[in-house]
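Re: the 239-residue chain
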Amino acid sequence: SSTSTSTSSSTTVPSTPLKTKEPPKQSKASNIVVMGTLLLKEQESELRRFSRTFNCSIASGTSRNVTHLITNTDYQGKAKRTLKYGCAVLLGQWILSFEWIIKCLEVGYFVDEEVFEVKGDHRALWGPRSGRMSKSAQFLFDNMIIFLYGHKTTEIRSLLKWTKAVIEKKPSNQKNSKNSFMILDDDEVFTLTIDELMKFNKLGYTVVKSSWLWDSISFHELQDLSKFKITCDTLENPA
């Protein structure tokens, strides 16, 4: 599948000179809601200390109220994809290296977020910044009708929750096949039979891998369908 559950990431201190912010006023600090993803236990403890120090909240799950998602990055400033990461890109929230938490605690006030902003993930760069700057990633799938197929639909459904796509409970004849998609998790592509594929195509759906959805979010742009479309040839000739 598209995400990783590993927590063995490393962090690096950015070499860019730090711009600092004045210690936040109480009202500003209380508006900040942080959330972690793929953090180690020790880091979760530090996140709680950050929350106490700056009088801000910690969210356990994605919401529009979250302002800062905190994660680990590799030496290139890239993070691993998680559901929380994808949702934060869609919602235009800050996605920061855990080093931001360390630095804020060290100096006693908020340092500039941009220095610690995650560069992207293993597939795409600048998704976090593009999503944050434009606040429009959630509109990528506007007017799309999507049917989720297979057993691994929970994560995809959770991502699409934050978009304007219409998720169908059951397949139906599509009048606008250009905007109608059946999405299947990459790991389940070959559980689909050719007969089932032809049935969905006949109803007017373009059948695609879930990585199309993920890459479109990460690149902050709808990706070329030809790279992700599932066809009879795909099923007959597995790579």
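The first strand starts at residue 33 and ends at 36.
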